[in-house]
Specification:
729 residues, mainly beta, 5-stranded antiparallel sheet, 2 helices, disordered N terminus, disordered C terminus
Length: 729
């Protein structure tokens, strides 16, 4: 950062703390019950401005935008389809993706063929005679290379292999012997012929017979296109005539990456990656390199349906991919598909670089994600290849622990994920119509999330390496472009964020006391800091007030409200003595304030209930007993709660009648496999948000969000098969 940039950022940070009107009071120690809050205007002294300036100079870190998403017009829904075993080579056509998957490594004895339907995402294993060694697809056709007679020397060698033709559903429709081969191998369509790599060279199959073997193509990297086979080797690419003309041309002005690199033919050119992230564009009319494109760390290529796509795996185990304009060679901004924090149990920790393969077909981009044991389906913006609508129950692997309350709005659910160690939170967006998942911020650039005033707001710690976070940064994000439109610095540690009554509200505390911070979205400035606030178990706006629930310091067990017009704080009468607040949550809506309370001894209480509180009197009017523990939400005509089911990996969605708090289990669905175990809380942490016609259930152990279409309730069975145990209270 140069001096001019530093001064501009310093001035911007200091300006955010500028005095907006004269101070009306000073914060005093809480020695008495209060009825009126103590209002503090941000930045009332030069000391505050100096602190803000010093922070901007020494601590305010530039935001990492390298993992921002691509333009949403480029990419549709992103769906992660688990296979349970790591996939390797992949091909795609109009109907499906076809992948080889096996327990460990590439070329193992137990490799099988899987078909994943393009429209529905349904995955199933295809039964073939013989170990599958290679796969290819084009148009309506698909092929697999199956070993009929394995060599005793090892699983990679086959004495007699056959090219198996498959119908659109995966049934075998023909088989041609091609001789000895090694696993894995490559298959490519060239006009009306199919080329397959064997131990004797390139076998060309046409009309159900092997037409010839061509002595060439000893590398896995080859592709069919423009009437030829394009085969990469060390330092060159050979163009081979499959009709018997042998090698027609050799292009030597490039450096193919023969170890987990890629080659593709389509969109008027042949494309090949180097090991350092460059992409060579070969003109098939001249057999010369036209452009050399810097694609970052891109290794995997797919060309078709009007685009070229390049992807790679990051050190954080994420997949990043972007579009290359086939005419100009311009590389678009990357989209990130988050990986898990640890490797699944079937992935050996000592196995080398985990491969990533890609294919394109039917308006869909596919990645075979070995590390996660899944295929990733990315719908491109193609009206001719629409996906099936989201089902009544949709599951989304979000690549990290959803550990904070979610926000719903602007056609999407906004999720805070733990993506690494403490403080490394990221914001992700799940489209409510298409199911597309997009990582909005990098790890460390989120903490809490709210929606309102045409924006998404997230609070992050600005000094995450400190023992205690003392400085925060509020990011204002455009929900359409996902660009950050404003940054608002805050002195203090943020424990909650919400929007309502025309303002953004933050819950902040020091070691003892809690505060409520008000931000004006019109100016993106702090306009008030209000003391004597209950912190830090819940913050919500509704029913004419701002509400806070206390769990720490002197506010433990207290519920406070604030009039957004007068900014007067009221401490509500304590609930019945048997109710304990410690560590619980609150929500507001549907005519009441709702609080989860413990009804026994201990910090959390031995049981939990949801209390319905009249916002006018502050008194409990109804109680839903023995409900469980977790986040909950009011909206869509009810109050919604989710909890795990004892004995099975399932989760219940519970609906509370807002008039009397009567509860009803409306859906029970399975959870995904556990990828994180918290031994302290005794089970998965489950929460729920509501909006866009759905309930969104977050489960930290399985890194997943489950979307349940509220319109489907009552039209489908309440319990999925396998979810039959009694609930956990």
């Amino acid at each position: 950062m140069n001096e001019a940039d530093l001064r501009e950022r310093l001035a911007r940070a200091a300006d955010a703390f500028a005095v907006t009107d004269p101070p009306t009071d000073r914060l005093v120690a809480r020695g008495r019950r209060r009825q009126v809050g103590r209002r503090i205007t941000a930045g009332v002294t030069a000391l505050v401005v100096l602190a803000a300036s010093a922070w901007a100079l020494f601590a305010l870190r530039p935001l990492d935008r390298e993992r921002s998403p691509a333009a949403l017009s480029e990419v549709g829904p992103i769906t992660r389809i688990p296979l349970g075993v790591p996939p390797q080579l992949i091909a795609a056509n109009e109907h499906a993706a076809w992948t080889i998957a096996g327990p460990v490594g590439v070329g193992g004895r137990d490799d099988g063929l899987f078909r994943v339907d393009r429209a529905t995402g349904q995955a199933r294993q295809i039964e073939l005679r013989g170990k599958v060694m290679g796969v290819g697809a084009s148009g309506d056709s698909a092929w697999a290379l199956a070993c009929q007679t394995p060599e005793p020397s090892g699983p990679e060698s086959c004495a007699d292999a056959a090219l198996v033709e498959l119908d659109p559903q995966g049934a075998e429709s023909g088989r041609v012997d091609v001789g000895p081969a090694s696993s894995p191998t490559s298959i490519a369509a060239v006009g009306d012929a199919v080329a397959v790599l064997t131990a004797d060279g390139l076998a060309v199959v046409r009309d159900g017979v092997v037409e010839r073997h061509i002595d060439c193509c000893r590398s896995l990297l080859f592709a069919g296109g423009f009437g030829s086979v394009w085969s990469a080797r060390e330092g060159a690419v050979d163009r081979v005539d499959p009709s018997g003309g042998g090698i027609q041309a050799t292009i030597e002005e490039l450096e193919p990456c023969t170890h987990f690199g890629s080659i593709a033919a389509g969109e008027g050119s042949v494309w090949i990656t180097s090991c350092d992230g460059r992409v060579w564009k070969i003109d098939p009319s001249t057999n010369r390199v036209g452009d050399v494109i810097d694609a970052g760390s891109g290794r995997m290529l797919a060309a078709g349906d009007g685009s070229v796509w390049v992807g790679s795996r990051t050190e954080e185990n994420d997949i990043t991919f972007g579009r290359i304009d086939p005419r100009t060679g311009e590389v678009g901004p990357p989209t990130t598909i988050p990986g898990s924090l640890g490797l699944p149990e079937f992935v050996p920790k000592t196995f080398g670089p985990h491969p990533l393969f890609s294919a394109i077909g039917g308006g869909t981009l596919w990645f075979s994600n070995y590390t996660e044991g899944e295929l990733v389906r990315i719908q491109l913006r193609s009206p001719d290849h629409e996906l099936a609508a989201l089902p009544a129950v949709s599951r989304f692997d979000v690549g990290g622990r959803p550990t904070r309350p979610i926000a719903v709005g602007f056609g999407a659910a906004w999720i805070i994920l733990q993506d690494g160690g403490p403080g490394r939170m990221a914001l992700a967006r799940i489209d409510g119509t298409t199911g597309a998942i997009v990582r909005v911020t990098a790890a460390g650039e989120a903490g809490y999330v709210a929606v309102g005033d045409g924006s998404v707001w997230t609070a992050t710690c600005a000094n995450p390496d400190a023992e205690r976070c003392s400085r925060a940064l509020i990011l204002r994000i455009d929900p359409a472009t996902l660009e950050v439109t404003a940054e608002i610095p805050i002195e203090g540690s943020i424990f909650g964020i919400t929007y309502g009554a025309g303002s953004l509200w933050l819950m902040e505390r020091d070691y003892i006391d809690g505060f409520l911070i008000r931000i004006d979205p019109g100016s993106n400035r702090v306009v008030a800091k209000i003391g004597d606030w209950a912190c830090c178990s819940g913050l919500a706006v509704g029913e004419g007030a701002v509400w806070g629930l206390g769990s720490v310091g002197r506010s433990n067990g207290e519920l406070t409200s604030l009039d957004p017009v007068t900014e007067e704080v009221t401490a509500l009468p304590r609930l019945h003595p048997r109710f304990r607040f410690g560590g619980q949550k609150l929500t507001v809506g549907e005519g009441a304030v709702w609080v989860i309370v413990g009804t026994g001894s201990g910090f959390y209480g031995s049981h939990h209930a949801i209390a319905r509180i009249d916002p006018a009197t502050g008194k409990v009017t109804d109680v839903a007993p023995d409900i469980g523990f977790g986040w909950f939400a009011a909206g869509e005509g009810a109050v919604w709660f989710a909890r795990p089911v004892a004995g099975v990996r399932c989760v219940e969605l519970i609906r509370l009648d807002p008039s009397d708090a009567r509860s009803e289990v409306v859906r029970v669905v399975p959870m995904g496999r556990a990828r994180y175990i918290d031994t302290g809380i005794g089970g998965p942490a489950v929460g729920v948000g509501v909006g866009e016609g759905a309930a969104w259930i977050t489960i930290d152990q399985s890194y997943e969000v489950i979307r349940i279409d509220l319109a489907s309730l009552g039209t489908e069975p309440v319990r999925d098969p396998g979810c039959t145990a009694s609930p956990s209270n």
